[in-house]
Amino acid sequence: MSNPAGRPAEDPLAPLAELPGVAEAVESVRKSVDRVYRHRVMRRRSAEIRSEAALRGARASAALAGADWALEEVRRRSDFGVEGEARTVGGALRVTAECGQLLSVWRQSPLRVLARLHLVAAGGAGGNEAVGRPRLAGESVDSTRDPAVPGVPLPDADEVAGRLDGLGRLLVAGSSAPALVTAGIVHGEILALRPFRSHNGLVARAAERIVLIGSGLDPKAVCPSEVGHAEVGAADYLEALAGYASGTPEGMAEWLAHCGKAVELGSRESTAVCEALQRGAA
Q: Where is the signal peptide (predicted)?
């Protein structure tokens, strides 16, 4: 049963905005994003800021997936089709570039977008029938690219299917919760489920990016949260994710605060780029 606004009678995300510290995180994120958008350089060179944010976000997402390359190395390289770290960096660049093109589909069918992101991250089907679909019973996850969440067992295929379906329904119905909350839940749920056999981290961070763009919080995609997640560090990232997976109010609040900090750090990164451009140093 839906209300006139098209949302479920019960909005499961709304109470999360009332958890301790979440409202403060939402407000702090809003101020940090506004700071970037008000910068005088954004009025003249927003396309350059967006391009740089995409590059830095992709580099950071790849770093969290085990390919921690220097920014200038990512900038100068073009050979991302080989195996190993180069392939991971290439996947991160591709999914980041794809995000802006998937907004309209996301609003109608977020699970189709997740499948598309996985296909793009994996570099196409390549004869692998597991690409672009959730894992089936008995299928494992490549732990070299998607490390296990501490203390959280890998959900089985049936649980993955049910929870993905619930997430998709929730996103299509919409929520009154702030964008940070929705983005954090999408990110956390994908990483907790690890629904694909590989590249779950790249997909989860790209999905968070899509929510932040589509919600209007960061419509020009100049506040790369991936940068913040990487800057905080992989260990703290996984620890906060374990809090999300616990399902406790304290754990959820910790994860959402972590996501807020990531957006703030991404915003600060782009503010620094604006300052450098203003000085003529970048």
A: none
In order of their start, the domains of the chain are 14-133+147-276 (1.10.3290.10)
Residue type for position 190? I
d(CA 96, CA 62): 11
Q: pLDDT digit string (tens) for 45-67?
A: 999 999 999 999 999 999 999 99
Q: Under the phi-then-psi rule, with left for phi > 0, alpha for psi from -120 to 50, and beta for the rest, what region is 127?
A: left
**Token representation of residue 57:** 């976000």
Q: What is the pTM of this model?
A: 0.93
Round to whole Å and give the CA distance between 133 and 110: 13
Q: Cα(141)–Cα(16) distance, rounded to whole angstroms? A: 30
CA 210/CA 60 separation, integer angstroms = 16
Over residues 22-46, the pLDDT tens digits come to 999 999 999 999 999 999 999 899 9
